[in-house]
Design brief:
It is a single chain. By secondary structure, the protein is an all-alpha fold. The protein is built from eight helices and no strands. It has a domain of 111 residues: Orthogonal Bundle (Lysozyme). Helix 2 runs parallel beside helix 5, helix 5 packs across helix 6 and helix 6 packs across helix 8.
Amino acid sequence: MTPRTKFRTLILCMLLFALTSAGYLGIRSYYPIGYEAFIKESASYHKVDPVLIAAVIRTESRFREEVVSSKGAQGLMQLTEATAKWAAVQNGIDPETINILDPKTNINLGSWYLSYLIRLYDGDMVKVLSGYNAGTGNVKKWLSDKTCSNDGQTLSNIPFAETENYIQKVQKFEHWYSYLYSEKLEYKDISALQTKK
């Protein structure tokens, strides 16, 4: 190999490395992560996949802790005041003392709520995410509607476009967060822990 060919090969390898690194960093900037310690702690305590928690946070708030929606949902996991207070009571916490916008509190209560929904719906993630987004009352109504559920157990049609889109986003983010951060979040297959108690 001539010196000129070696030089071209070296330049090509460096260029490929730079492009690969830039692409990887670009993907990470689109799928940011934060609050890993709180996510891991809550995931372990409530037996919820930390990647799922991160995907819900990315979908709900893009990891912005001060976000308040037009419907009053607050914080990283976009909890309504009613849901946060109910979750606090279920966890033995005085609901009058919670700060929903506090990241640790928000992630703890949101993770507990995901755990509750996972148990309620026997791990059926379409129903879990529908319940998180549209409420358990809507899921119950849809399951009794033949246009939404043929068997009363499985959602075959979700009448809210927002909820359908929400499920797709969470699942997409879950895929990418698993790929990018599974080691950082100490991801383990905990499907056996997500069964109804």
